[in-house]
Design goal:
20 helices; globular; six-stranded antiparallel β-sheet; 13 strands; four-stranded antiparallel β-sheet
Length: 627
């Protein structure tokens, strides 16, 4: 919520005056804005899910989808499994029945051991024959022989297919121009609908049955495969997306499952909102519609693989085989698409769970909008095309048509999206560059670029550096040489921007770090019984503001040359030098700010973001070259 000239006061500065009145007015405006945003997102979601507003706010994704499933189960007269945390209950079942037994035997034996059984397990056992199937094979879920928490699950389900830029595609730290993304819109929800996946409709195929589908798991206990009535096989030669593990057969009910039915409703609402966004001319209404769209889209994405494969969360929808069916089909779709694109000699530069990224050009001249936004006059260059965009888009549309037929689901969408330029660092860490209304726009993705704990000046510096990198590397031929030049430019421009940094040309707001401070006694003491750095800081702030901190208070800090008053042996090491962070209201002279610390922070941010250990631009050579 942006409020022009927002007034912020410390408790000691609150008086009966005009400034405090304005501070209170701004507080009310901000709270009203936050509340309205919350209502705009949550109320449409409450109406769509038929979930009471007060329940929705406190519910997680699993609870929300359980609620929608229960409504549909009532209508379809289906028995839905009880709420259960599958992992701890599997551990309990293995303690009671180490070999694993059938449902009837479990009920019979449980009556004899009633005193040993927890209330949570009794809730499941009361269902008798209608108990979920996982009670018969708890050894698949809980590993009795686990040495640590990483081994506690006795199965390994593969995730989405990935093409890592630094390890697989060798595309890292190169400016790729005119990038087309073969993006599967809502990959997992689409697969769930196309295959009819859900806890109530997916079961293991028995040995005498013909499976409706095969699901890939990287690891399953041998005792389960040997002794349980299930059909399984080794990975086939044509299943090149799978490396290790086994294929397990599943049966899928032809009748629509309760989660599938709920997903249909959610996706219909999303489609309607998308149509309204395209036709709505009023900017404020369009903004509100987009907010609602993001809210319901988040609910849609949370209602697939996550609710089916959450053994530590209380829910009704756990179904390992259904979750594996979604990931297996996702892997198959992307693997097949990748193979077809490679056959057309298209340069693949990145791949993640629901998309494959294709680079079309080596020159910014072939993206005139971006060239103009950066103030370049680079002309289109036919020789710089790696693949003509029309050919790449045609290939994506061809793959889309193939998979619509294979899934027998015409709403499946493998659609091409375009970005002016991109640069990849490693998996899930990359930069997107686009021209919007003749202005340069950069979007950062991944933890390498996450600047939430950094002062805003670091993010601004990154954008300026990347502008210069694109300007100086607007055209390239050899990938290895382009990578070397990009690294060199990043180092050179980082040092240049840091060198020019001056308090006279910096907005002090860009130097601020926002942190919450609690009363000193709330911070846990060290093993020696001494106050921690945060506790000492709280005491020092109380001396500075002349008032006790009675509850959690947010401060806007800047890093200064002198430490807070009363702190012995202050330290400036670490990401945030707590001992040297002063509330911005107490800075009387800009020269008190430690600009050198901010310069080092920017350098460290850039080094960490791009995996560069040294910003020195010198090139190391052998003794022969020196001689």
């Amino acid at each position: 919520i942006h409020i022009e000239g927002r007034v912020r006061l410390l408790p000691s500065q609150i008086k009966i005056d005009e400034r405090t009145l304005l501070y209170n007015r701004h507080d009310v405006m901000e709270q009203c804005g936050v509340t309205l945003h919350l209502l705009e997102q949550a109320l449409p979601l409450a109406f769509t899910t038929c979930m009471p507003f007060e329940l929705l706010l406190e519910s997680g994704a699993v609870g929300m989808w359980d609620h929608m499933a229960m409504i549909r189960a009532t209508r379809k007269k289906k028995i839905i499994p009880p709420i259960a945390r599958v992992l701890p209950l599997s551990k309990s079942l293995l303690g009671l029945f180490p070999e694993g037994i059938k449902k009837r035997e479990i009920v019979s034996e449980a009556k004899k051991k009633k005193a040993q059984i927890s209330k949570d397990l009794i809730r499941v056992l009361k269902y008798g024959e209608e108990m979920p199937d996982w009670v018969e094979y708890p050894m698949v879920i809980y590993n009795r022989f686990a040495r640590d928490s990483d081994e506690i699950l006795n199965y390994h389900m593969p995730g989405g297919m990935t093409i890592k830029p630094d390890k697989d595609a060798n595309s890292h730290l190169i400016p790729w121009y005119y990038v087309i993304v073969a993006d599967v819109g809502a990959m997992y929800p689409t697969i769930l609908k196309a295959l009819n996946i859900g806890a109530d409709v997916v079961k293991l195929a028995k040995k005498e049955e013909k499976p409706d589908a095969w699901v890939w798991l990287k690891r399953l206990p041998k005792e389960f495969l040997d002794h349980y009535d299930v059909v399984w096989r080794e990975i086939g030669e044509d299943e090149d997306f799978a490396d290790v593990g086994v294929m397990v057969g599943i049966k899928i009910d032809r009748r629509s499952g309760v989660v599938n039915s709920a997903m249909t409703g959610i996706m219909n609402v999303i489609a309607k909102i998308k149509r309204e966004v395209k036709t709505e001319r009023d900017a404020e209404k369009r903004k509100r519609l987009k907010m609602i769209y993001q809210s319901i889209k988040g609910a849609r994405n949370a209602g697939t693989h996550g609710i089916l494969s959450a053994p530590t969360v209380s829910g009704r929808q756990f179904n390992l085989w259904g979750a594996a069916a979604i990931t297996t089909k996702g892997q198959e779709i992307l693997s097949d698409t990748l193979r077809r694109l490679k056959e057309k000699n298209i340069r693949i530069v990145y791949g993640d769970t629901d998309g494959i990224y294709m680079a079309c050009s080596k020159s910014i001249g072939n993206v005139p909008e971006l060239s103009e936004a950066l103030g370049l006059s680079e002309k289109p260059d036919e020789r710089a095309w790696i693949t003509k965009p029309d050919l790449a888009i045609e290939a994506v549309n061809e793959c889309n048509s193939i998979w619509q037929k294979r899934l027998n689901y015409h709403d499946f969408e493998l659609e091409p999206e375009k970005h002016d330029a991109m640069m990849f660092v490693k998996h899930k860490n990359y930069l997107i560059f686009d021209a919007r209304d003749n202005k340069f726009e950069m979007i950062t993705k991944g933890n390498n670029f996450r600047g939430s704990e950094k002062a805003n000046i670091a993010k601004k510096a990154l954008e300026e550096i990347m502008k210069e990198v694109l300007k100086e590397n607007h055209r390239w031929d050899d990938e290895s040489e382009a990578r070397r030049r990009v690294k060199s430019t990043i180092k050179e421009k980082t040092k240049e921007i840091v060198r020019k940094l001056d308090l006279s040309n910096v907005d002090i707001e860009d130097l601020t770090l926002v942190q919450s401070v609690q009363p000193a006694k709330r911070y846990q003491k060290t093993k020696d019984g001494n106050m921690t750095t945060y506790g000492r800081r709280a005491e020092a702030l109380e001396k500075l503001i002349g008032q006790r901190i009675k509850s959690r208070v947010k401060f806007k800090f800047v890093v200064t040359k002198k430490p807070l008053p009363g702190i012995k042996n202050p330290s400036k090491s670490g990401v945030k030098p707590i001992d040297y962070m002063y509330p911005i209201e107490f800075i009387k002279d800009l020269n008190e700010i430690d600009l050198e610390w901010y310069k080092r922070m920017i350098e460290n941010y850039i080094k960490g973001a791009f995996g560069i250990f040294d910003l020195s631009t010198t090139q190391q050579t052998g003794l022969d070259a020196w001689m």
